[in-house]
Amino acid sequence: MPNASVFTTTLDPRGFVHTRVHHGSEINLEHAKKNTTDVISVSGGSNYPILVDLREIKSISKEARDHFSMRGRKPHVTAIAMLVASPLSRIIGNFFLGLNRPTVSTRLFTSETEGISWMKRNTEMGEQ
C-alpha cells in the first residue's frame, strides 16, 4: 500500500477530512490516487472540506498535482485548506495554486486554526 508511508487521512470529529503528508514524502500519481480513495473512504462518500498538512513534504510530481486539481473528475471535497511552514512547502503550495488551479476553493495557511476556520466558513457559504 503506497500511502502507508506518505499520507495519514482521517475524518476529524470537527467536521472535515484531515490529510497529513509524512516527513520527507515524495508524492507521485499513485500516491495521489490512493489518497483520493482514502478521502472518499473515511468520509463515507460524503463531501467535506479537507485540511492538507504539507508542512513536511519533500516533493510532488506534476501528475500528482494535476490529479489533486480535480479537473475532469468529481472533487469529493468542498474546500481545501493547505498548511505550509517551510519555504519548500510554501513553494509547492503556491505552485499548485498558480499552475494547477483546483476546481474547489483552495488557500494556503501557516496556522491550522485559521485554516480550519476559513475552510468551515467557505464550506458554509458554498452550501447556502
Question: Can you describe this structure?
Answer:
With 128 residues, this protein is of the alpha/beta class. The protein is 40% helix and 28% strand. The chain contains four helices and seven strands, in the order βββαββαβαβα. A five-stranded mixed beta sheet has the order 1-2-4-6-7, sandwiched between helices. It has a two-stranded parallel sheet with strand order 3-5. Helix 1 runs parallel beside helix 2. The protein is globular and about 30 Å long. The N and C termini lie far apart (39 Å).
Task: Give a quick rundown of the structure.
This protein is of the alpha/beta class and 128 residues long. It is built from four helices and seven strands; from the N terminus they run βββαββαβαβα.
Topology summary:
Elements: E1 7-12, E2 16-21, E3 25-27, H1 29-42, E4 48-53, E5 57-60, H2 62-68, E6 77-83, H3 87-100, E7 106-109, H4 112-127
Parallel strand pairs: 2-4, 3-5, 4-6, 6-7
Antiparallel strand pairs: 1-2
Strand order of the largest sheet: 1-2-4-6-7
What is the straight-line distance between the termini? Answer: 39 Å
Number of helices: 4
Shape: globular
Low-confidence stretches: none
Strand residue content = 25-35%
Helix content: 25-40%
> Which oligomerization state do the chains in this entry correspond to?
single chain
Structural class based on helices, strands and sheet pairing: alpha/beta
Give the mean pLDDT: 87
Rg over alpha carbons: 13 Å
**Biggest sheet details:** 5 strands, mixed
Q: Topology as H/E string?
A: EEEHEEHEHEH
